């Protein structure tokens, strides 16, 4: 009887795991579990394409390491010492065929099939193709008997693609979320989660195999390749060594990776604290563990599945009828957004990453048509946004939280994304890559899909959506509790009414980098002689012109900022972009530090 090799990917769990269960059923429980830290995604040299940011910084790498440790423990304890074979800084398409060949020739263990869950986006699918090609090549050279590749859908979505009604199927889906949602809510069912394989029927390999030791911390997989390590010594605010959500006491939630922690979090948010019953009212919060579910990091790594969550929501409604309200539906609604982005990625493929986005596809020929928006590529402004030094406190607080912990609330994400794309008019893909580097819950479909929305190049029927970050701060952090937590320069601030002038009263806090005029971005340099203006609330996302208020005060701009502006480089048109950017960042920092000393 042959063995089934289960290749774990973003599905680090044993429950509701179609690949694991199918492998057990088809191989009478003879299972070899494998996990590879793919060096293109999580490794000492993995970098994003445009911005050259670390592809996986410390918080997520740490969360991932914990999830792998947890999976290894679960397999060992539930399945009589079963060993999870782990490989670091490696490529699945090299490691897996080599392992299968060695097992066959040296241990007389024949692997009949490799089981895994199919992914959606091109980088992940390319790995699947490379693995298939490598196994075929070995087979053709006679070095390996035939091995079947069993790609399964798994439970990464709430609705299974096969269960979508015809009008909402992947090939046919309407491009607007609301239309799609109405169709699926009416015509699709949600499958029950699968059980974990019965321990009595699982057989671990009766020998120990050589592989890498399971990493104990992020540094063992990414080394110093993280944005925190690069920025720690040059941001003028505290960024702890090996920043993670647990190390930094200002965290919103002390995230720990893994299926066990996911179950604890789901239990705590539902039956534990009943916070779920208040979700609709609290979901736009910025501070604390309970304003939203915080399930996204676990979903991203597959520590829990949307179908398991749905089952818990239904059970909660049944067992706590007195708490039943709109909130459980609202969480389901958000999970449907997640599905929508995933099915959109299946449908439109790489358009998810195009500068002109899915709008280009909808408008016809993707190469020719599409909005002709020109994005700025100002390295200095980008750097100020990344390091939480824009002079707009809501943006800065959120960006610092992200850098220090890997977490940012949904409200925060919408604001910082709108600010980057609509106020600074910087290429949205750089923002998306920054999130890719840092977010604990990074998920290609949700991340790039949401960024396209924010930038107005997605499937959003309202492409002019804009968040007024001053007004948003007034609405969602009126007392400034959140901003004070992350901005020590403004620790004693109690009056948030003159946001554009905070630096005049708190000199350590930077002056605003722009006047925040949506659609007419102006550097302070450009506007130095213009009368001061502050934005007064036109409705967020409104089409109307913004009103300005004359204050008559002369504008004063610190010298270091002028220097920063003149030092800007076009990082994408520059062949040696990353080196120039780094040099430029250093110039900005030096100027900033000099200005602080004076
Ligand atoms: C610019 C930008 C980038 C984003 N990048 C990501 C990302 O990389 N990964 C990610 O999971 N989410 C992303 N989101 C969506 C959303 O911000 C997070 O899912 C949410 O903040 C996670 O917190 P939570 O689990 O407490 O969510 P809750 O509010 O409790 O929602 C429950 C679940 O619904 C899903 N969900 C909620 N909102 C969205 C949404 N807008 N899009 C897709 N799914 C949603 C998530 O799986 C979430 O866990 C992004 C949003 C924006 C505006």
UniProtKB/TrEMBL annotation:
<feature type="binding site">
    <location>
        <begin position="292"/>
        <end position="296"/>
    </location>
    <ligand>
        <name>FAD</name>
    </ligand>
</feature>
<feature type="site" description="Electron transfer via tryptophanyl radical">
    <location>
        <position position="428"/>
    </location>
</feature>
<dbReference type="InterPro" id="IPR002081">
    <property type="entry name" value="Cryptochrome/DNA_photolyase_1"/>
</dbReference>
<feature type="domain" description="Photolyase/cryptochrome alpha/beta">
    <location>
        <begin position="2"/>
        <end position="157"/>
    </location>
</feature>
<feature type="binding site">
    <location>
        <begin position="441"/>
        <end position="443"/>
    </location>
    <ligand>
        <name>FAD</name>
    </ligand>
</feature>
<feature type="region of interest" description="Disordered">
    <location>
        <begin position="522"/>
        <end position="563"/>
    </location>
</feature>
<protein>
    <recommendedName>
        <fullName>Cryptochrome DASH</fullName>
    </recommendedName>
</protein>
<dbReference type="InterPro" id="IPR014133">
    <property type="entry name" value="Cry_DASH"/>
</dbReference>
<feature type="site" description="Electron transfer via tryptophanyl radical">
    <location>
        <position position="375"/>
    </location>
</feature>
<dbReference type="InterPro" id="IPR005101">
    <property type="entry name" value="Cryptochr/Photolyase_FAD-bd"/>
</dbReference>
<dbReference type="GO" id="GO:0071949">
    <property type="term" value="F:FAD binding"/>
</dbReference>
<dbReference type="InterPro" id="IPR036155">
    <property type="entry name" value="Crypto/Photolyase_N_sf"/>
</dbReference>
<comment type="function">
    <text>May have a photoreceptor function.</text>
</comment>
<dbReference type="GO" id="GO:0000719">
    <property type="term" value="P:photoreactive repair"/>
</dbReference>
<dbReference type="Pfam" id="PF00875">
    <property type="entry name" value="DNA_photolyase"/>
</dbReference>
<feature type="site" description="Electron transfer via tryptophanyl radical">
    <location>
        <position position="451"/>
    </location>
</feature>
<feature type="binding site">
    <location>
        <begin position="334"/>
        <end position="341"/>
    </location>
    <ligand>
        <name>FAD</name>
    </ligand>
</feature>
<dbReference type="InterPro" id="IPR006050">
    <property type="entry name" value="DNA_photolyase_N"/>
</dbReference>
<dbReference type="Pfam" id="PF03441">
    <property type="entry name" value="FAD_binding_7"/>
</dbReference>
<keyword id="KW-0285">Flavoprotein</keyword>
<keyword id="KW-0157">Chromophore</keyword>
<dbReference type="GO" id="GO:0003904">
    <property type="term" value="F:deoxyribodipyrimidine photo-lyase activity"/>
</dbReference>
<dbReference type="InterPro" id="IPR036134">
    <property type="entry name" value="Crypto/Photolyase_FAD-like_sf"/>
</dbReference>
<feature type="binding site">
    <location>
        <position position="279"/>
    </location>
    <ligand>
        <name>FAD</name>
    </ligand>
</feature>
<dbReference type="InterPro" id="IPR014729">
    <property type="entry name" value="Rossmann-like_a/b/a_fold"/>
</dbReference>
<keyword id="KW-0274">FAD</keyword>
<comment type="similarity">
    <text>Belongs to the DNA photolyase class-1 family.</text>
</comment>
<dbReference type="GO" id="GO:0003677">
    <property type="term" value="F:DNA binding"/>
</dbReference>
């Amino acid at each position: 009887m042959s063995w089934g090799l289960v290749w774990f990917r973003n599905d680090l769990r044993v429950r509701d795991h179609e690949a694991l269960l199918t492998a057990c059923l088809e191989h009478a429980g003879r299972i070899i579990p494998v996990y590879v830290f793919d060096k293109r995604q999580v490794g000492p040299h993995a970098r994003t394409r445009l911005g050259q940011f670390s592809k996986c910084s410390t918080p997520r790498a740490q969360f991932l390491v914990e999830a792998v440790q947890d999976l290894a423990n679960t397999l060992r304890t539930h399945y009589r010492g079963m060993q999870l074979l782990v490989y670091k800084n490696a490529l699945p398409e090299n490691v897996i065929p080599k392992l299968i060949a060695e097992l066959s020739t040296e241990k007389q263990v024949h692997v009949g099939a490799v089981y895994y869950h199919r992914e959606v986006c091109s980088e992940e699918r390319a790995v699947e193709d490379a693995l298939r090609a490598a196994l075929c090549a070995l087979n053709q050279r006679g070095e390996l008997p035939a091995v079947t590749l069993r790609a399964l859908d798994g439970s990464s979505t709430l609705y299974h693609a096969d269960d979508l009604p015809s009008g909402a199927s992947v090939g046919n889906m309407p491009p607007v979320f609301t239309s799609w949602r109405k169709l699926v809510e009416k015509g699709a069912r949600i499958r029950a989660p699968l059980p974990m394989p019965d321990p009595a029927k699982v057989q671990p390999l009766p020998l120990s195999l050589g592989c890498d030791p399971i990493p104990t911390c992020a540094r063992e997989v990414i080394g110093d390749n993280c944005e925190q390590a690069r920025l720690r010594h040059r941001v003028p605010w505290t960024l702890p060594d090996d920043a993670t959500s647990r190390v930094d006491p200002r965290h919103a939630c002390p995230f720990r990776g893994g299926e066990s922690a996911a179950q604890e979090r789901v239990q705590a948010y539902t039956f534990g604290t009943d916070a779920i019953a208040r979700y609709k009212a609290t979901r736009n919060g910025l501070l604390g563990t309970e304003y939203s579910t915080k399930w996204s990091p676990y979903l991203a790594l597959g520590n829990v599945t949307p179908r398991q969550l749905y089952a818990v929501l239904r059970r909660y409604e049944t067992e706590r009828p007195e708490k039943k309200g709109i909130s459980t539906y609202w969480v389901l609604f958000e999970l449907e957004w997640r599905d929508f982005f995933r099915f959109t990625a299946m449908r439109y493929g790489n358009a998810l990453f195009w500068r002109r986005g899915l709008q280009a596809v909808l408008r016809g020929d993707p190469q020719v048509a599409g909005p002709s928006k020109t994005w700025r590529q100002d390295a200095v402004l980008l750097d100020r946004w990344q390091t939480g030094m824009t002079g707009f406190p809501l943006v800065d607080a959120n960006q610092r939280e992200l850098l220090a912990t890997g977490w940012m609330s949904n409200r925060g994400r919408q604001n910082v994304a709108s600010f980057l794309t609509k106020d600074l008019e910087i290429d949205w893909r750089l923002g998306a890559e920054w999130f890719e580097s840092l977010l604990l819950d990074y998920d290609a479909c949700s991340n790039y899909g949401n960024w396209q929305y924010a930038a107005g190049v997605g499937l959003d029927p309202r492409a002019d959506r804009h968040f007024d970050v001053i007004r948003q701060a007034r609405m969602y952090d009126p007392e400034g509790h959140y901003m004070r937590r992350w901005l020590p320069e403004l620790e004693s601030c109690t009056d948030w009414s003159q946001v554009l002038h905070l630096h005049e009263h708190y000199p350590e806090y930077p002056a605003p980098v722009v006047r925040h005029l949506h659609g007419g971005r102006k550097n302070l340099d450009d506007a130095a002689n213009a009368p001061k203006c502050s934005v007064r609330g036109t409705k967020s996302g409104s089409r109307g012109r913004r009103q300005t208020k004359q204050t008559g005060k002369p504008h004063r701009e610190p010298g270091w900022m002028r220097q920063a502006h003149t030092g800007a480089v076009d990082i994408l048109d520059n062949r040696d972009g990353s080196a120039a950017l780094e040099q430029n960042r250093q110039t900005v920092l030096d100027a900033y530090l000099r200005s602080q000393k004076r």
